[in-house]
Amino acid sequence: MNTSSNRTRLLALVLGICAAATLPFWAGDQYQLHLAALIAVYWILISGLNIVVGFTGQLSIGHVGLLSIGAYGFCILAGKMEMNPYLALVISGGLGGICGLALGLPSLRLPGFYFAMATMAFALIVNEIILAQVDLTGGGIGLVGPLFTEPFESPSGFYYLAAILAGFATWMTWNIARSMWGKGLIAIRDNPVTAQAVGVPVFRAKLVAFVFSGVLAGVSGGLFASLQSYITPDTFVFDLSMFFFVCIIIGGRGSIVGPFLGTVVLTALPEMVASLAKLGNFFYGLLLLIVVLVIPEGIGRMIQLIYERIRPREIASIPIQPEPEKLHQVLRASGQAHAAIEVKHISKHFGGVAAVDDVSLTLSPGEVHGLIGPNGSGKTTILNLLSGYYEPSAGDLLYQNQDFGKTTVQQRARMGIARTFQKPRLLPELTVLENAMVGAWSESTSGFMASALALPHVGAEDRIVRERAVELLQGVGLGAVMHRRANLLDHAQQRFLEIARGLALRPKFILLDEPAGGLTSVEIEHLGSVIRAISKAGIGVLLVEHHTDFVFRVCDKVTTLNVGRMIKHGTAEQVRHDPEVIRVYLGA
Amino acid sequence: MNNHSSRPDEVLLSVRDLHVAYGKAEVVHGLSLDVRAGEFVVVLGRNGAGKSTVMHAISGLVPKRSGSVSFAGQDLTQASPGQIVQSGVIQVLEGHRVFQTLSVEDNLMIGTYAKSPHGDRTKLDAIYELFPELAERKQQMASRLSGGQQQILAVAQGVIGDPKLLILDEPSAGLAPMVVDRILTVASELCAKGLAILLVEQLVEKALKHAHFAFLMETGRVAAAASSTEIGQGDLLHRVFLGGGEPLSESEKKV
User: Fold this and answer.
1) 0.90 exceeded by the pTM?
2) How many other CB atoms are found less than 10 A from the CB of residue A487?
């Protein structure tokens, strides 16, 4: 953000790396070296779990199961079968990934709490299987954890191996966090409806993140077995899973530094202060309680809070100043729709109630189409049908003679249908710019691993998305607050940001749900100029709104609904003077 | 509505020198306003001026940095939101916030809990009479209502609590024009029966039509306070909403 905070961060990073690289030379004894290696090994697992828990918001408490699969896989391959330990470590990672897939595939569809239960059951089942398969796993007696070969055989050698892999894992998760994937995963965590609207394939993205964490858990397991030199099912108690989870929670979600500090503190403290070790789980519980009560946002956020206390950031209210001409130029460059969306005799029933009943309308490129009517007349339902949140009970939705009524929300986004929401649905912890960038999700084609490894094309793509998002924000009038966190925006700014996010999708059509709600007359003027710039660029606009003067001013066509049925359709002038419309909606 | 030329003497709500900050950044800078007994007061101002923040501070939903709030002679500066509701100040929050997974009727019952711990069903009929669209949907889950209907429910939830002062934060958002008129008329009628109203609204003309007295807010301060007729006629209103002008001089503040 600002350069001095970047410099502080860079300095901390360099110092951290130097400390880690020279640790075997200044660590007091073998035990402390062991502890450092253990932290590195745990962190490999936790960094991956952090993507699942802290970023995607999926509460997995079963990662100890994946850890033990990696550990046993490594012991069996490198010990019993005398395979090259490095190859065995790679295979352990693969095993972790495969088991992560097998666990995630059925369970990631479950809502939060049930998913956590499923992962817990998985961890317990894995332990039972290991106990039962005596021939392979040694049952209760356990297995010897083989050493690595030179140069990583000695304790300090092992430490370097673990530290290098931990560094690599950190680098990958950091890359993900700052890529489009990171923003998409946070969208899943904070607002799944928004994630869908911008085209994030919610289930697939969760699964990919989970498999990634499985691979890291497997690798961590292999290293863990070698470090502990002997493993039994008792090594992988369920408490360990809670430990991983607690490290992330006290570290703070959506942060990488926080959970890392959490891991260091929680691993080292009980070992260094013997009296704490005796307390065991009680200590973790107490620490968790303190953190949740005192700094619910975690250690990572605390650092940021301290920083903000030293250098308070201004959150002065800055009025919206759109640049319609600029907006028009930016939108013009991304190509226009050539065909109209035809809504034909569409109906939607909820139980016995018809929310929308036999409505037809045409949404043409470059046209502003108003949709008005009393509360509960079906306006938002039509928006939900067009953007794919509802499936029509009857009737067709046609674009270029194709019926798209049954496609998913994400497919609609890719088709070029963007929308805003009656209550703005932003990602509160991301900046304004990042919120706008999320809108361009469908445009970014980089895979998860490409992003994790920061392949060159990812950066190039990211730059294009970022530059366009900046221009769009300037266009709608939010240029001055671009780097502000979205939860600091006032109501009007939130509404305009939703429009910018919708436009980032390069839409052919944009559906606006009460964009003028809560705006002042001046802001409504600005909204009008933004909408005109959008339609002038060839984008079709569907406008649901109660500010009727505004609707009649900006709309080319207006459709009026009442209890789900269309009562009048025509130009603004025709609708405005229709006696039926006046009777049910406008009032005298 | 009738615009009193002079305000009633009895001060019901008194906010003095209120400062509110989010973290280090102060957003309300020494604001004072009052609502007199039986008065309909509107607070106008641009988005970001701090109107909702002031309302939240009055209701105890955000901490006050300094200043005082008293209601009917009782000091509420340090009171919890629950105590504030008990004392008769009920706020209808902006953005149709109702309990999504409860039925319409249960949402209304919750509104009565402050006064009667087991809920008071006797008031339901009167509410259904005021808001017939809710009567039709008593047993429906609130999530099944449209956004506008949820907003009506939120207002009804405030009214059923039988407040002495009802704070309405942008009740018009998401409502059809006719319904906005009805809600404001209901508020005026309640006011005529002795309830004081504190309204935050962006539909300036409609709000001024119903209110007796108006406060104009600009970046965390009161820029002007006068009867709604005077505010409606002055060009100050125009200037505040266009923004960007130089700060008001002392003489202008008095209108």
Assistant:
1) no
2) 12
